UniProtKB/TrEMBL annotation:
Compartment(s): Bacterial flagellum basal body; Cell membrane
A Pfam family assignment: FliMN_C
Family annotation (Gene3D superfamilies): CheC-like, SpoA-like
Name of the protein in its database record: Flagellar motor switch protein FliM
Gene Ontology terms for molecular function: cytoskeletal motor activity
Keyword Cell membrane among UniProt keywords: yes
Annotated organism of origin: Georgenia yuyongxinii
Family affiliation: Belongs to the FliM family.
Main localization, broad class: other
Amino acid sequence: MTLPREHARMLEMAFGTFSRHWANQLVARLRVSVTATVTEVKMCSYDEYVASLPTTTAVVLCTVDPGRRTGLVQFPLDAALVWIDHMLGGPGTPGAVPERELTEIEQLLMAELLRRVLGDLNYSFAGITALDAVFRQIQYTPQFVQAAEASTPVIAAHLVLRVENQDVPVSVMLPAEGLIAAMRDGDHVDLRTAEEVAEEKAQRRRLEEAVQQVPVDVAVRFGPITVHPRQVVALRPGDVLPLHHPATRPLDVVVGDRVLAQAAPGAQGSRLAGMVVHVKEN
């Protein structure tokens, strides 16, 4: 299963935005340094995604529109226990609390955080589709979570949250069908960042300014006529060429081979000149 390059880029941008927002949520609640990076975004089967997860881990089930399908957000249980310790005012020492399932109170704390995280997921994907991800529950054994059929295509993103000096691998699984359909419908959407768009505009402006400074040859001429080669070869001083150009018709103002305007013949001082009487529209 391979994503088209344009779709992969859209997803990487969305997950990149989401990872930064997740890091900000943790900074606000844990009061420690948190950064985030996206390590992989791919399309695979649901079975392949589940096989990549630890046997025991925190798995957040959420309902995802369109179609009310199920998405997953996964993170290590030991990391969740450290986060909760921070939120309760503790030192958040990794390994201080043995890995175990969350208590009811701990689940309530994590659920409040995860609802905000899912809100950031919805925001990050708003440019692709309306996810409307809604928190449902936390489970601990991915192999027993029946979020989709084994062969169902899904979008799997693997991220790393660096909480203080600890790397925390996390992942997100979203049903591929709705996302792929939304991206196909929006293939005309500009995938560039705001910085890339601004840079292109600046380059175009510089190019236009540079072109306006380039000197060009302008000619004022009669309309061309067609003659046989033998007539050209036989030309002699005194020969008269009929131009078929009415005396009342203006002359052509030409740059290269393109007629840009018409001008009436005249003079400026001792030199011939043409007074523009009409400019052609582009």
